[in-house]
Every structure is written in structure tokens, then in C-alpha cells.
């Protein structure tokens, strides 16, 4: 026996042979036998950028006393309890609904918990069942809630870290670090174990056990910055996070998960279950500009996190490849591996790459530094992930256009030189907001009619706490990027919304966040999606848009969901009645013909295969003024006709829920890709907007399926 589950759902985890598993699966009282699998772990500016400044006494942050009575459960790689972000200064008693505790283990005991870090548990049994030779002293990890790598500490900081003033990374991004709900309590559930500093494994059975415990302990929000490849549909019981999240949501716990870091390719989004709040990552209105001056006095602004001293005018070289038949290899960052020390020693090197910047920068900097070079300029596709180089070695990113200009300068000058200055922090306009290139994209590869991701939040170069023994930390703080960082941003906001509206369901909270999101940045400018090429962002990049915390407090109307709605969804995608009945704890009969997944009351409409006109229902619940009248406005996707009936919704003291129908038809005569639009209900105070995504498929065939 590895684990037993008894709080959110009944079951156990055990090490079994295939024949034993089959025998158990055949028992009538057994719902599913799930093979174990492993997941991966997928600030000073964020909260001001999103409008949650502590200086505004009437905003969401201060209306909720900064989330003091909320408990955020972090399922990740553990915690570094000595970090300043877990101080409990000026925080009141532990909330009365907390039933958890702190477990002791290697270099961790209950004294490491306080009124901020109120819970810490670890789950390793399933991991050990498949990694019997795991040795914590060799892997550097701790068999306890203590996390060595720092990923779990970083995400906990973003969600609910306490105020830590005068923080920066070696002078960059200076300010006060804090979480979205800085007085919320943190409960850590360690399920990810590092085989070395960069490779972690998170067993689905351990995650399920952690979710089961978190439900019992009384968390209000669950935050999981984890993902897995390949993806499984919700009907496939191997998706442990989806299974655990379903039971958590039925208990009123919002589950927030990362979309994944496999972008910008389409159909890469993960954590696609419709009861999960799935988060994409954007940039902030912050940039780390690095001035470079060429010998012709032309100043070029690159991107880097370079905190060393100025590199005075120094020879600038490009690794030409004369006489080699493979001219396409000339000047690439990959060629630096075979270049000679004589070519690069004492010089700054320019190279070009097609690889992701986060990979190329590390390799190129290593090659140049090893050869005695003084710096490297890396030209490539616009990217988002910046990371410092070892020993403050300057490695500066530019796009192809600037890289080509620098190359022209090198080739047209007998003695080209460059000066590199330390990076500087630039905040506000003209720095624009973009969906990060790494952020996984829709359409949903599992259930195409369910829009994923749901929402986007900042997740690029986020400064938060880490362990003090990781590379690149400054006083225990570090920049990290990923949907792992965007996820706890939403988790912190969810905690505040639940504190303000304790009667809202997880679906209502999700609806409030999605329908009030920015479709531009906070300054009204277009949000673009990084990729090749860069393009205006659409719902497959960012769901409803960029989260707008203040607007989410008063959405006016919400698209709510309850158990019966989830049953309808499971019937529509193929669960059999016996499995559904056992899962939800009561008898279930699916209607015939099978219900349409398009009828699921989501705050979005996605039609992946439109041929003939379809009509689908939606129901809105009034959470605003009792006496309200809303009128509809539609931006139809290109080549479609969208009709809403009725066009006016009236709410009063006796009418709190109103349904309407949406009919969609196509004018296209050929198969198309997806086109996007929106549907908005408005009164004098609120705009309740959902995205529309429609693809015409008159004759489905494989070539047009993406």
C-alpha cells in the first residue's frame, strides 16, 4: 500500500503487477484503476501592473484585508521556510477552518511553520515505488517539506508571500516583493522530487494524495504549476490532476493550473479539464534594456539580465566560416562550440540562432566564456525568457533585424568594436504586453469545444523568493519565467475574490475572471502573441484575455456551473453511466441522444466543426444589482452569422437566473481555420464578455484538422 484516499474521494495507491491491477479493475465496486505517471514543475511589478496597489484603500486587496482568512494550497516541490516572504508580522490567528498541520522530516520540523506558513506536508511513497534507488543526499533534495530547487518557494511567493521591501536582483527590478494575497496563509504539499537540480518527477498518485489531504485540511484555493506530456482526455483516468481537481471543485475549492510551456505551437495547452482554471503567461510592462554602443556611435538596445561592470570598447567579431561547404552553418551560435580560442579570446562575439533563446543563451555564453571571450550578442526570434549568465557574463539578445545591422557594421569596418553597459530596468510605456512565446496554446487538443487556456497573467521574469543555494539568486530572490509563475498570480487573485465573495462557486469565480479580462493591455494597447511571426493575441493564446482583478470583483453576471452541469459534460464526452454514478456518488442516467458538449455553460463558445447552423444555450446568474437590464452586442467571427435570443435580459428580486440561445451559421464555402469574435451583455455598469471561436468544416479531413 502506497497511499489511501479518504477525504475528497475513496481509493488507494499500491504497487501492483499488471495481472493484480486487472483483477482489481474487474471488481464491481472499483471505479477506475489508474496507472501512475509523472508530472513536471512547469512580484515587484506584477501587482501594480494589474491594478492591485496597496495604496488604494477601496481596491480588492484592501477590501479583503489582503486575503487574511484565505488558505492557498501549493502542490509543488516544497518550501524554503527561512525565506523572508513567509514572515507572519501583523498577521492574525490561523483561520478556524484550518485542519492541517506541519510534518517533520529531513531539515524540517513543525517549528518552521508559523501564522503565514501554516501547513507543510510531503508525499513520496509513489515516487519511491518507481525510484527505489533515490538518495536524497545524492540528489540534493530533502525527504521532508523542505524544497531544494526553489520552484515551490517561488510560486508560493507569487500567490501569497508577505511584504519584503527593498528587494531586487542585483539592482534590477527594485521594489517590494509580495504575493497577490499577501496576508493569505500558505499550505505547502510537496509532491515533486528532484533527481538532480533541474530534473524533477511528480507522481500522479502522490499528487492525488496531496489533493485529498488539502481538501481535508481546509484550503480555499489549490495552485498547481505542474504539467505532463502526453495529454490524456478527461475520460482517461490517467489524468490524476483532473480527477483530484473534480473532487476539489465539488467541495468549493478553485483549482488553478498551468497551461504549460510548450508554445508557441498550436494544440499544446495542458490541464484542459473544464473544471480547472487554466493559465497562460504574458510579459509585464517591464523590460531590462542593455545599451550597446558600436564604434560608429550607434547605440543599440538589447535585452539581458546583465549586472556586471561595463565592458569598454572591445573587438567585435562574427564567426565566419570561409572555405566550408556548409555556409548556412557560418555565424550560428551552434558553431561557437567548434570555434577556436584564438578567434574569440578577449572579444565580444555576435552569433545567430533559430533555437529558443533560453537554450541558446546558455550554450553560447558557455562556449564564448570558455574560449576567453568577453561577451556574446545573440540574434534570434523575439523571445521572452531572459536569464543571467554565469559570473555576470554579458549575453545580450537582439532580434534578427538588429543582429543583421550589427553584422553589416562588422563587415564594413576594419576594426569593429562594441561597448556593453549593465542592464537597466524600464517600466511602463512604451514596453508592450505580449503572450510569452513559451506559453502553451490552444485549441484544446483533447476536447476542442472547451476553450483553453482560460485566462492569462504575467509569467515572464518574475522576481520572487527561492532557496539560498540556487544559482543566480540574490539574497534568496530570483527571476523565473513560465506558466508556473502565471498560475500562482491567478491563485492569489482567486483567494481575494473568494474572500470578498465566499458564496461564489469555483465556476462563478472562473466566469468573473474570464468575462472581465482585458483584451488589450492595461494602457489600452493591443496584446500580441510572441511566435513566428508575432501576431495579435486571440483566445487560443490567452483565453478571455489578461486578468483584470478589480473588474472581476463586480462582474455583474456569471456563467455558473454545478454538479448537474459537470454530469452533462461527462455524458457528452463519453463517460459511461456507471463510472459517472460512482464518481459523483449518486445514480446518473445520461440522456439519449447524447447531449452536446456545446451546451456546457462555459464563459466561452468554441465551435470546432461548424457545417450547418447550430443553436446552443447559455444561462447567466445575476451577482450584481437586483434590478438590472442587459442588452447584447456581438462581434461575429469572420464569415459567420451570430444571432442571440432574446436580445435583452431582465433581472429583478425574483428573477436571478436567465437563459438565452445563440445560433451560429457560416457563410464560408470552404473549410477554414478558426476565426474569433465576442459576445457581450451590457448594462450601465458592467460588460460581461465571452470569446467566440468558430471553425467551418464543410468536409472534415485530416489536413485541415489543425
Automatic annotation (TrEMBL):
Sorted UniProt keywords: Glycoprotein, Hydrolase, Protease, Serine protease, Signal
PROSITE patterns linked to this entry: SUBTILASE, SUBTILASE_SER
Domain named Subtilisin-like protease fibronectin type-III: residues: 599-694
Record flagged with keyword Protease: yes
Recorded coiled-coil stretches: none
SUPFAM superfamilies found in the cross-reference section: Subtilisin-like
The Inhibitor I9 domain, residue ranges: 1-40
Catalytic residues as annotated in Swiss-Prot or TrEMBL: 76, 151, 484
Every Peptidase S8/S53 domain range: 67-520
GO biological process: proteolysis
GO molecular function: serine-type endopeptidase activity
Protein family according to the UniProt entry: Belongs to the peptidase S8 family.
Protein name in the entry: Subtilase family protein
Originating species: Arabidopsis thaliana (Mouse-ear cress)
